[in-house]
Write a structure and sequence with these properties.
102 residues, mainly alpha, 4 helices, 70% helix, 0% strand, elongated, DNA_pol_delta_4, DNA-directed DNA polymerase activity
């Protein structure tokens, strides 16, 4: 019986350690995802601030990108790709001045 108790205790300790490692791994992955998201949003903010692609008030970032492309202003393809990948997220799609009416 004492062997059974030790085995259960040993297994529960292993399971507890595994759970702690799993939680730490999830935390690290979330931190990495947050870092990547912040870097992406910073690139989009810099796109908003670059007046060489025309004004951005009253339109989405993708609309602005497409308008700049149409007028031969050579907006970064990286921005378009990012916007197409994240089209459902308003934080990505709406520019810095999206809350201001025309």
């Amino acid at each position: 019986r004492s062997d059974d108790g030790r085995r259960r205790k040993c297994c529960s300790l292993r399971e507890e350690k595994a759970l702690i490692c799993f939680k730490q791994l999830l935390s690290l992955k979330q931190q990495e995802a947050d870092r990547v998201r912040e870097e992406e949003l910073e690139k989009l903010r810099q796109f908003d601030l670059d007046w060489s692609f025309g004004p951005c008030t009253g339109i989405s970032r993708l609309q602005r990108w497409e308008r700049a492309k149409l007028h031969g202003l050579n907006p970064p393809e990286e921005i378009r790709d990012l916007l197409l990948q994240t089209h459902a997220d308003p934080e990505y799609n709406l520019g810095l001045w999206s809350g201001y009416p025309l």
